[in-house]
């Protein structure tokens, strides 16, 4: 590509105009700095709750705000059996969602024909009691948490 010569009426391509490459380079650096800053500011978030040994996570997380049909439960290490109580109502094992229990996931989803058809609006609390099925020397443990439903 040739540059315009004196007396040539063709316009200079925008990429070859004075200062364009500098502006593009500075824009890319500012964008990269913004990404780095955003990552730095958002890392770390909320610390993970202190769960007892054998409990990996609960759903919903303590203090969460969730719809009244949300699943409630826990993910346990293999070798634990769970008893789940929601707002004082013990959930029958047959009403825990099938298919995930073998992976240590024990969840109850409120719905028609279930012991709890929908969660009440406002503060709800759940309690789980985990009993070992493999390591009989391990002690049972209880974990309680609360969340808000809307």
Question: What would you say this structure looks like, in words?
Answer:
This protein has 150 residues and is an alpha+beta fold. The protein has two domains: 1-45; 55-149, Immunoglobulin-like (Sandwich). 15% of the residues lie in helices and 30% in strands. The chain has one helix and eight strands, in the order H-E-E-E-E-E-E-E-E. The strands form two sheets. Strands 2-8-7-4-5 form a five-stranded mixed sheet, with no helix packed on it. It has a three-stranded antiparallel sheet with strand order 1-3-6, with no helix packed on it. The longest helix is centred in the first third of the chain and has 23 residues, at 20-42. The chain is elongated. 15% of the residues are buried. The mean pLDDT is 84.
Mean pLDDT reading: 84
Please tell me the total number of domains. Answer: 2
| Number of DSSP strand runs | 8
Strand content bin: 25-35%
CATH class division of the largest domain: Mainly Beta
Query: What's the Cα radius of gyration?
Result: 29 Å
N-C termini distance? 65 Å
Major β-sheet annotation? 5 strands, mixed
Based on secondary structure, the structural category is alpha+beta
CATH architecture title of the largest domain: Sandwich
Which characteristics define this entry?
Immunoglobulin-like, 15% helix, 2 domains, three-stranded antiparallel β-sheet, 150 residues, 8 strands, elongated
Could you outline the blueprint of secondary structure elements for this entry?
Elements: H1 20-42, E1 55-59, E2 65-66, E3 72-76, E4 80-86, E5 89-90, E6 105-108, E7 122-132, E8 141-149
Parallel strand pairs: 2-8
Antiparallel strand pairs: 1-3, 3-6, 4-5, 4-7, 7-8
């Amino acid at each position: 590509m040739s540059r315009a010569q004196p007396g040539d009426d063709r316009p200079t391509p925008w990429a070859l105009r004075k200062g364009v490459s500098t502006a593009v380079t500075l824009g890319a650096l500012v964008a990269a700095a913004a990404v780095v800053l955003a990552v730095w500011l958002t890392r770390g978030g909320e610390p993970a709750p202190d769960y007892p040994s054998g409990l990996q996570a609960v759903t919903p997380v303590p203090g969460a705000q969730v719809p009244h049909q949300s699943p409630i439960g826990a993910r346990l290490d293999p070798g634990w059996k769970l008893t789940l109580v929601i707002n004082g109502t013990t959930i029958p094992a047959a009403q825990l969602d099938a298919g995930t229990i073998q992976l240590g996931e024990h969840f109850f989803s409120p719905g028609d024909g279930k012991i709890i058809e929908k969660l009440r609006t406002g503060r709800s609390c759940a309690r789980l009691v985990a009993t070992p099925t493999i390591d009989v020397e391990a002690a049972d443990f209880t974990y309680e948490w609360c969340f808000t439903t809307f």
